Amino acid sequence: MDQLTTELSARIEGEVLMPGSDAYEEARKVWNAMIDRKPLLIAQCRNSQDVAQTLALANGNDHPVSIRGGAHNVAGHAVCDDGVMIDLSQMRNVSVDAEARTARVAGGSTWGDVDAASQAHGLATPGGLISDTGVAGLSLSGGIGWLRSRFGLCIDNILSVEIVTADGQIRRASETENADLFWAVRGGGGNFGVITEFEFQLHPMGPEVMFCAPIYALECGPEPIRFWRDFLKDKNDRIGSLVEFSTVAEDDEFPRESWGKQVYTIAAVYAGDAEEGEQIMQPLRELAPMVTDFSGRMEYCEVQKLFDLLMPAGEFRCYWKSHYLQDLSDAIIDEILEGIKTVPSANTLASIWNFGGATASVPADATAFGDRSMPYMFSLDSVWEGTDDDETNIGWTRDFWGRMQRHSYNGRMYLNFPGQGEEGDKLLQDTYGADNFQRLREIKAKYDPDNRFRFNQNIRPLNH
Predict the structure, then answer these.
(1) Where are the beta strands (DSSP E) in 175-330?
(2) What DSSP state is assigned to residue 460?
(3) Which fold has domain 94-205?
(4) Is 2-87 in CATH node 3.30.43.10?
(5) How far apart are CA 443 and CA 432, in angstroms?
(6) pLDDT tens, 288-330?
């Protein structure tokens, strides 16, 4: 291994980290504290050539390869045991062309990097809900954020990518260049190569936006949620929203009498004029006596960081599952409310997300992501602290998820919230649809016939 390290160090501009160093220990940490894997070495690449050289050396020695962007993936795909970890965390440059309303975003960038650079020009592109989430990991499986109502998913705003494929070639993919690869990466995850640069479409947004966040006690029951559902029916093109179930922390931002109580927040962002959004969303703040209300006009970058403290990197053990829902009937709302009462961890969240608007306007075959006609998503974000509680929390999540499965939209799941992807090919075929899944396997066979990129929601090459 010393020889491999020496050879790679001579080939790349970045650092090569080995077991035993503090830098290695820090670099192998990922956001989910459940993940404790140890690569043979970590290549902290600085450019696409570094990535290509690292891939070539790993391939030549038949070592597995994992890719670290923001390291937020809940299944921990960024890091592998006994393989080569390509670490893009040193590649975080964001360059904005304000006139063209585009941004070039290096592959290791976070959404905080993109938001800061684009908001300097009064522009934005749909990102996630947590600012230190990696751009690549979130985007490649779709990317669901606050601006989805008006501008769609993250993948709907990608104009091109620079990608290093399994053969070590650096390629550009867009609608006019390597179009099959461009189609595949927009929803197909990290199966097709290492994305070293994204080009995103930007849109005028902010700097001030309206964020709505009244918090109601769980004991208020289903009526506020039913109102929210009906209220959004003609507003899904302007409001990205979720109902988030949680337990109030012992925090002075909340009334002391609410500490430890189960609540739900009707959180929403208006993708337009802040004053107009405040007026339109006011009814969501009048549905029952509130525990508290975090609503207000604020800077877009501030909104993008609001959820960061709920999910600090490396502090909690996490297991997340999801279903796209075929409907949100009164009975389904009642079932969710009943199920959440038994949550074993006060740190766990669950959410109902609305869709429609720009997200739904993209044809199913336009991107690998597939069908967009699901009206809602239900996610279970189980979060806890101790290893002794793993079985209880994972078991609760899988049980609740299993009971909700009969309400799922064609068995589909958001691939950024897949648990550990235990369902294998069935999960992928259900989620992509048979035609898209077949096409993805064909493209995988073309660009990665040996399945070198397999630390992901893995799409096996056709005939593999």
Answers:
(1) 194-201, 203-204, 208-212, 214-217, 239-247, 262-270, 290-293, 296-299, 317-325
(2) P
(3) 3.30.465
(4) yes
(5) 14
(6) 999 999 999 999 999 999 988 777 676 899 999 999 999 999 9
